[in-house]
Amino acid sequence: VFTIHNLGYQGLFPESRMQLTGLGRSYYTPEGLEYYGQMSLLKGGIVFADSVTTVSEGYAAEIQTEEYGCGLHSLLHSYRDKLTGILNGADYRAWDPAADSLLPCNYSPADLSGKARCKDALQQEAGLPRRPGTPLIGMVTRLAEQKGFDLLAGAVEELMRLDLQVVVLGRGDTRYEDLVQEFSRRFPERFACRIAFDKRLSHLVQAGSDFFLMPSRYEPCGLSQIYSLRYGTVPLVRATGGLEDTVVDVRSDPRHGTGFKFREYSAGALVETVAGALDYFRNRPEQWRRMMDNAFAADFSWVHSARRYRQLYRETYRKKFGSYPPPARSSGTG
């Protein structure tokens, strides 16, 4: 069983490196590891595996298209019968606002007072004005184009005209590190950033924010939006990959909604969605609380994912060897 996390990272090497694999030259063919004159380890994994998985059902469908397939869409489509999407799971022992030792105050759906104190602590630590009624949008992310920072760059002027605050935590490409630092200098009372990997602060951003923003160009699964749901922090996401699979847009399903989604990859769609979300925050308290309760109740634990993996492993074994479980091994010798 071969699992693809992110198709954008393919393990491409010159043909001359083939000898380092320990595989015979017979594997370096268009039907094997050869890929436009190079050796592709990812292609080899797809071709020779009995089953191929990826980290969400949405991404499994997307990577069979030219837009998201990174040049391997035709290959993946041809092997679609052995391709399965299984969502990553969350470890709720580490991500639970009722027991999170990294927070200044714990909270639960029954008592949200601790979440308000976490928001105050986050505003204070980020250097933002401590305004409990101002909606706060958090991001904990790798600073890369994949994560939608070109959209944020195009939207920031209009976003900063809205009554909101933004906190960004992460590291990544220098140009995007420079970009968010420039935003924090230009809008010191509305935009804050921390260029770092900081476990404690990442938990505080999840707990202290009202919204969690993920405007990704593509997202194989995403865990941050899953964590934000457990923390009652409403996700604002682009409907792609695992983000599509894990967030229910409240505007299309008011009863079961857990957040807000937009499909068009544009700064305008991002601004429109944020503006609509702020309306719920300020003017629709009953719907806002129902959405938070739905978010708290969403369950993306590893228990569900592990069951699906176990089922897949058994089915794969059965297809290859004709039965499952495997016959018991003899305890004798010879």
Helices and strands, with pairings:
Elements: E1 2-4, E2 12-14, E3 34-35, E4 38-40, H1 41-48, E5 52-54, H2 57-62, H3 73-78, E6 83-85, H4 113-126, E7 136-140, H5 149-159, E8 165-170, H6 174-186, E9 191-195, H7 199-208, E10 211-214, H8 224-230, E11 234-238, H9 241-246, E12 260-262, H10 267-283, H11 285-297, H12 302-321
Parallel strand pairs: 1-5, 5-6, 7-8, 7-10, 8-9, 10-11, 11-12
Antiparallel strand pairs: 2-4, 3-4
How would you describe the overall organization of this protein?
By secondary structure, the protein is of the alpha/beta class. It has helices at residues 41-48, 57-62, 73-78, 113-126, 149-159, 174-186, 199-208, 224-230, 241-246, 267-283, 285-297, 302-321; strands at 2-4, 12-14, 34-35, 38-40, 52-54, 83-85, 136-140, 165-170, 191-195, 211-214, 234-238, 260-262. The strands form three sheets. The protein has a six-stranded parallel sheet, with helices on both faces. Strands 1-5-6 form a three-stranded parallel sheet. β7 (136-140), α5 (149-159) and β8 form a beta-alpha-beta unit. α5 (149-159) packs across α10. It is globular, with a radius of gyration of 23 Å. The two termini are 31 Å apart.
